[in-house]
Amino acid sequence: MVYQYVVTLKNQNNRYIDILGLLLSIFSVVCFTLELLRSSAVSLDYLIGAVAVLGFIVFNLIQQAKKQKVYYSRALLLAGLVWMKMPYFSWLLFVFVMLALLEYQAKYSIEIGFSDNEIVMNSLFKKRYNWTQFTNIVLKDGLITLDFANNHILQREVEDDEDDDADEDEFNEYCHHQLSKHHSETANGKRQT
């Protein structure tokens, strides 16, 4: 489907997801190192796991300092494999693998597509709305406000865009036109029946 406008919402969870990934990775390195020191025979699994996860941590911290996106999924997957070999908490394998698989989806910014027929929110599960389900839609000063007809309001920050405010005005005019058109069609349809 072709959308006349696509608005990308700012993902406010990235920082918390990164902190969780960092803490779980550090926790794993500490546990692998302690198990390596505690075991009588040298286990390469713990040594390789601790060094590799520590390497991912350092790489991600460097990327973060450069203001680049970071992903702890590789570190979590590797740590999960080593947790499988651990004499305790081996069930953490499932937790680490699940968190690693969900990281990309959790960091994905939600996009809202506006077409002449519908409004689609591209999240984990796509949500489709008719224009008649809204009373007002406004984009102003980096915030989008969607007023639903059931008195529910969604207001979120949008991604920074280098475009000027003329696009904001065009978008608001487009939404106002679509809302008026669809509400009058619905009203006319009710009158005829």
Quick rundown:
Helices cover 53% and strands 18% of the residues. With 193 residues, it is of the alpha+beta class.
Strand content: 15-25%
Number of strands: 7
Helix proportion range: 40-55%
Radius of gyration from the alpha-carbon trace, in angstroms: 24 Å
Note the total helix count.
5
| Nearest-integer average pLDDT | 87
Encode the helix/strand succession as letters: EHHHHEEEEEEH
Major sheet: arrangement of strands: 1-2-3-4
Taken from the alpha-carbon principal axes, the silhouette is elongated
> Could you describe the largest sheet, including whether it forms a barrel?
4 strands, antiparallel
CA(first)-CA(last) distance: 31 Å
SS-based class? alpha+beta
Taking pLDDT < 50 over at least 5 consecutive residues as the criterion, the unreliable ranges are none
Description:
- The protein is an alpha+beta fold and 193 residues long.
- Helices cover 53% and strands 18% of the residues.
- The protein contains 5 helices and 7 strands; from the N terminus they run βααααββββββα.
- The protein has helices spanning 14-38, 44-65, 73-85, 92-107, 166-192; strands at 5-8, 111-114, 118-122, 127-130, 134-140, 143-148, 153-157.
- The strands form 2 sheets. A 4-stranded antiparallel sheet has the order 1-2-3-4, with no helix packed on it.
- The longest helix has 27 residues, at 166-192.
- It is elongated.
- The mean pLDDT is 87.
